[in-house]
Amino acid sequence: MSFTIDQESERTLRFSGISASRGIAIGPAFRYQRTLLKGEDHAISPSEVQHQIERFESAVQRARKEIEKIRRLAEQKVGTPASSIFEAQMMMVSDEFILDSIRRRIKHELKPAAYAVDVELSEQQALLKAGENPIMRERADDVEDIKQRLLRYLLDRAKWHSKIDKPSIIIAEFLTPADAILFSRSEDRTTAVLGFALDGGGVTSHVAILARSLGLPSVVALHNASESINTGDMVILDGERGELIVNPDQETLRGYQEEQQLFALGASESPIETIDPSISGARTRDGKPITISMNLEFGSEVAIAEAERTSILGSAKVDATRTPALGLGLVRTEHFLLLNEELPTEEEQNALYEDLAKRFAPAEITLRTFDVGGDKVLAGSYREDNPFLGWRGLRISLDEPEIFLAQLRAILRASCFGKVRMMFPMVTNIDELRRALKYLEQAKSQLTANREDFDDGLPVGIMIEVPAAALLAHVFAPLIDFFSIGTNDLTQYTLAVDRGNDLIATMYQELHPAVLRLIQLTIVAAHAEGKKACVCGELGGYPLATPVLVGLGVDEFSVAPSQVRSLAARIHAIDSTEAEALANDILKNAQSPNEVKQEILTFLGDRQLMTRYSEAIVGPSTFGKKLIKR
Amino acid sequence: MVHRTVEVVNRAGLHTRPAAAIVKLASQFRSEFFIVKDGFRINGKSIIGVMTLAAAKGSKLELEFDGPDEETAAEEISMYFAKGFEEVA
Questions:
Q1: Which of A354, A328, A352 is nearest to A340 (CA)?
Q2: Per the CB < 8 Å rule, is A84 touching B17?
Q3: I want to staple A580 with a disulfide (CB 3.0 to 4.6 A). Which of A380, A551, A595, B86 is the partner?
Q4: Which of A339-348, A570-579, B64-73 has the highest mean pLDDT?
Q5: Do A91 and B11 touch (CB under 8 A)?
Q6: ipTM computed for the complex
Q7: Chain A residues in contact with B38 (beta carbon < 8 A)
Q8: Structural domains in chain A?
Q9: pLDDT in tens, B46-88
Q10: pTM of the model
Q11: A139 in contact with B at a CB cutoff of 8 Å?
Q12: Cβ of A83: how many Cβ atoms within 10 Å?
């Protein structure tokens, strides 16, 4: 297993996709190609019907046996909620109505079993793909799995090669859920799958769900990346940014190895002692408490966040009813708008907010009012030339008081069912905040008039994501209860870089000294008024950023559920006084993002944090460590 | 024969898990069970059939029950729709 890169090797290729499961994997590619089998159309004589029916029945029996085996394997690997995917597949292959229809095609249309299976199931797939529900379109893959399985038996083809002989990153046009489970079956670290990179697929596909359950970094929607990659090519799979890099240069590789090593921290299965449930977060080595909460985007993430919380609190053996637990630092409420054609009503919103408040009580949930462009709120509204600098976030809410008031009431009403905080996105100007707070007062009076209960002291905060707001944080601080620093937008707006633009993507640098200065201004302004400062952007989960953010005085980190443990472990390894000195030093001396990075690496290196991490967490003789030692 | 009109109320719509649950529930009854959506009629005891409805949130579906236990079947299955398949919002 050698990862030395041939200097003469091919040029570096980069592909952009969508992250379906976070984390970083580095290793050789395994190009998984399965040709899609088809059943050929020809007529059979009536005397062959009986034989074809028998072949079909035995193929169904074999498929059932195999799916049952995979289901058991999945149950072992990922537990019941995720393994139920295969229970549904089992029901599909036992669907008598479909099986009967296939039998009829053989008997009455005089077609071979393979053709009958292909035609019938392809028709069902076409129906799934034509439907209005995007989630169901992806389920056509499950039917494909069954169809291919049956065709393989009927056409006497060999088994697909879903075994690897060294740790590899699977590169494929598409994978079925069964492929994902079979690739991950090895318990042996030396033949373990490291991640999945797929041309097709979506983040809600069953493969993506399984990848997250398996904790394997995965990137989907890479278009035709697989065509350009051969088994054995060195690849970096970046599930943090949704990228795939083939034949990386030494410098890129080194950067990712460092990042990967930091990510490995806290990923161990040993009991987590670094999370302190009594403070809903972690303590630094010298005992400074820092709150950790979670970001929530899609409806399906509720389950992920809940599971992560239960598993962490469960392993810490605490009475979850008495102690505050990991809450939600950012709930993006706009997914309502993105999934529905019509505006959600107050009742519809309230039902979701109330449910979240109850589920996470006594922990806090932070509901951010709608943050999308104008086209999402009002159907048929005009397209803007520059939506990022356009009508979005709080600007829309203030222009559409009825929509805004309905959302404020829905949030307020949910506040008596748990601990609810609220915040406004895209604030640039104190007048906007004043107007928003006036609407909040109006919403409260409306509820009072209707004798509806709410928490009058519900904490209100704003997002700091525009440089203007960071520069004037001291003006905003007296009016609010907390700041939440959205580092993604703050970085984009400060550096004038659209991170979705491939041409300049490398210029999107969250550790730019200018961004760090704005974060510092925000935190200082918050603390001067006795208010809290939270970081809810991706920078919060970025391993290298932890020491500098702790040093700047961040009170709360809100990160993806999967990052909670590793973040807690990193915080626990840092001394807050030393981190403060590091932050001051960086703000004073670092002139470029690279210098910032270098200072942090030196800081970690001097304290032997890197080595300690790798020994404690990665463990002896593992793949990760070999990479690091090189 | 009993007819019921139901609406899909959960956010994710009628996806795989609820489809499987509906089929399991329907299989406990002797009555025949069909679902009609936009003129498209499928057997409610066929999981692939129910999945192909691809019913999103807000879709209206016509349920048809025919058999000795049609009343109970109609009651229980409409209830499952009304509860949003026991999912969040």
A1: A352
A2: yes
A3: A551
A4: B64-73
A5: no
A6: 0.87
A7: none
A8: 13-34+160-248 (3.50.30.10), 46-154 (1.10.274.10), 250-289+461-630 (3.20.20.60), 327-458 (3.20.20.60)
A9: 999 999 888 888 899 999 999 999 999 999 999 999 988 876 5
A10: 0.58
A11: yes
A12: 21
